[in-house]
Known about the structure:
Elements: H1 2-12, E1 19-22, H2 24-31, E2 37-42, H3 46-56, E3 61-65, E4 70-75, E5 80-86, H4 92-96, E6 107-109, H5 127-132, E7 135-136, H6 143-146, H7 150-161, E8 164-165, H8 167-176, H9 185-196, H10 201-212, H11 215-218, H12 221-225, H13 238-254, H14 261-271, E9 274-276, E10 279-280, H15 281-290, H16 296-299, E11 301-302, E12 308-309, H17 313-327, H18 332-344, H19 347-354, H20 359-369, H21 373-391, H22 398-419, H23 427-434, H24 440-454, H25 462-472
Parallel strand pairs: 2-5, 7-8
Antiparallel strand pairs: 1-2, 1-6, 3-4, 4-5, 9-10, 11-12
Helix pairs in contact: 1-3, 7-9, 7-10, 10-13, 13-15, 13-21, 15-18, 17-18, 21-22, 22-24
Amino acid sequence: MRDHIASIIKTINNTETDLYIVGGAIRDFLLNRPIEDIDFVIKNNIKEVVENIAHSLKSSYFALDEKRNTYRIHLRDSNLNLDFSQMRGSTIEEDLSMRDFTINAMAYPINLGWPIEIDKIIDPSNGKGDLRSKTIRFVRDSAIQDDPIRIMRAVRFMSQLEYEVDGQTLKELKKNGHLITSVVKERIIKELFLILAEKRSFFYLNFMDKHIQLLDKIFPDVIEMKCVGECKYHVVDSWTHSIYTLKMLETYIYASSFFEEHIKKAYDEHTSEILAGNRTRLQLLKLGALFHDIGKPSARFEDPDGRVRFRGHEVTGAEIVKKYAEEYMLSNKEKSILYRYVLSHMWPLELYKKNDVSGKTLYKMFMETGPETLDILLIGLADIVATRRLLDPEEEMGVFKVHIEYIANNYLTRYKEVENISNIFSGNEIMETLNIPEGKEVGEVLEKIKMAIYFAEIPATKAGIIKFLKSEK
């Protein structure tokens, strides 16, 4: 970092401009948090200055927004982004007055070098004081009108830093929550996933709903979820239950010794998968838990005995989350996974109620849940406990954990190795061995092979498969 800053200082020494580090880098420096990006403000000649800096750092630059004069240099050696923007107003203080939160409205003259000298930080809104008091505060009351995404950013910073929101800022959030509908979908989903990345996202999503009335502006179906859900097995509405389900899921996934060690390791590896951009499977899994019962309002009916039921809510719910995934432009992979979460989330509960974890039944489940099996088991466990704990707080919950771990063990030790056997035996090899053309029959044969391996009828080897296919002729 020091060398990069020194190179930048040397480059601008003969340039008639003022250059400042601003925003998050100063905040994170003061909090001793990792710095991933550094924002700079340049008073004038921005494109020329950025071009010269990029040359001195042996890097290239590109425009983030040419109309707003914002540029980025990516430093590959340190995986650091340097973002440059044109100063708004005629002074750095005026520029800072247009920023979102006091903790982000600090600046530091680059010519003073690195590391930052704390007493030389320009801090007109007392951001350092709000860092000490752990407070999220708007620089000015009109901050939301300037950019309504700041409503979600306030909650995001609360979740990332575990800070409280200032009273006047909370009033502004409540008063202006409706403005979130004017924000483009990509920005909304970006902030939502950043909140989902935190360990207590359930708390902050609940805060967004209860104190800002925000989530039903983003996901209108939340309104109906609050109106239904109470039945023989549920003593609260679907939305309250869903928040509780997310809380349980986060409790289990972040616990160091809740699951057996090998299952915990499998979950850690599985949920860290990057699905799109920098969004992980775990973030999407949390969204799936939050909306696993989103189909209940549309599926609600009363049977002839007057009992409220929600048969088929997983089917209607899957279609609803698919609609949201498309609306918020999630990737095709994310859309497919989220759909499967909701569609298949009843499997663990149904198997528990039937007391059926036979090999045949589990194979049928794994066929449907596929690579999302571990995710669905976790949603299922959180769902069951969130329901039962409210019905009977004294009930022993360990039995549900044993149920889930048994299925997870079967998946990891028996099914996972046959989930994709192309590295052992491919479709082309099936066609060659059986002398059949490409088509539906190849898929059927492949399924027979997988079943035979799963039920330990043949070894998971090429020789074992060939022998099996020849015996089936």
